Amino acid sequence: MDPKEQMQFFHEMFDSSLPRLGPGDHASTRKAMDIWLSAMPRREGGPNPTKLRILDLGCGNGTQTIQLANHLDGTILAVDNHQPYLDELKRRAEAAGVSEKIRTYLRDMCDLGLEDGSFDLIWSEGAIFVMGFRKGLETCHGLLAAGGGLALSELVWLRPDPPAECRQYFADVYPVIVDNDTNLATIRDCGFEVLGHFSPPESAWLECCYAPMEDRLQSLEKMYALDPERMKMIESIHMEIENYRKYSSYYGYMFYIMQRR
Ligand SMILES: C[S@@+](CC[C@H](N)C(=O)[O-])C[C@H]1O[C@@H](n2cnc3c(N)ncnc32)[C@H](O)[C@@H]1O
């Protein structure tokens, strides 16, 4: 398979019909929103809570986008680089009656072409890694108006002593993973005040993300049983899930909610 075919098959595995495309759940999105909203009265000259300009980076098929639209006043620009995800997001937004609040934007988040200072709130669940944590923070800092908020989730070590097998797994797939304190220091260094942070529960991985993914992989295994390259890609997702089942106490997502200083 050439890189284009690999990407096509990646998107076939992570199909737009899945409930969501990365670990997360509605309760965590809601909790992050509440942390940001409850800090709002403290902000002088901050965003107008009834006309928020929101950017959802790496929105995928829009699970969190719809939730933001349901709970916040304003407009959302939902960015992703895969059109089928944006099509599914639009379908879901129409079904939820919030389509007039959301505009989709097919774009590489590393080259957004958006005006500095033009957003009050930036959301990015499980997607800031695409730019890199620090680069993502710097980009968002530039895009936010004074006092604007940023909420994102990022993979972290939850314990300092992961077993060698788990350490090796991340050395191969995500060598830039660090601990929470290191991320908090980077966030402050990039000009943000931390409003709160928390780790979404294991169910956000196992029930909300991996269970539907495993169903999807099962049907793909039947279709591609005689295709070793695609079966190898399927196996790599099984390994990711297996690694989480074994070592979920050692790593997870951290949701960071912050305000531009
Ligand atoms: C782990 S998924 C998270 C999706 C969604 N936020 C969620 O939690 O379900 C990462 C998303 O980032 C998108 N993405 C990956 N690289 C991108 C890029 N360079 N520019 C824009 N979006 C990108 C993917 O298409 C995918 O939808």
TrEMBL record:
**What region holds the Methyltransferase domain?**
54-148
List the SUPFAM superfamilies hit by this protein, alphabetically. Answer: S-adenosyl-L-methionine-dependent methyltransferases
Tell me the InterPro entries matching this sequence: CFA/CMAS (IPR050723), Methyltransf_25 (IPR041698), SAM-dependent_MTases_sf (IPR029063)
User: Its Gene Ontology molecular function terms?
Assistant: methyltransferase activity
Q: Which GO terms describe its biological process?
A: methylation
Superkingdom of the organism of origin: Bacteria
Report TM segments: none
| A Pfam match | Methyltransf_25
Write out the entry's keywords from A to Z: Methyltransferase, Transferase
Q: Which PANTHER family match?
A: CYCLOPROPANE-FATTY-ACYL-PHOSPHOLIPID SYNTHASE, FATTY ACID C-METHYL TRANSFERASE
Q: What is this protein called?
A: Class I SAM-dependent methyltransferase
* Protein source organism: Desulfomonile tiedjei
Upper taxonomic classification of the species? Bacteria, Pseudomonadati, Thermodesulfobacteriota, Desulfomonilia, Desulfomonilales
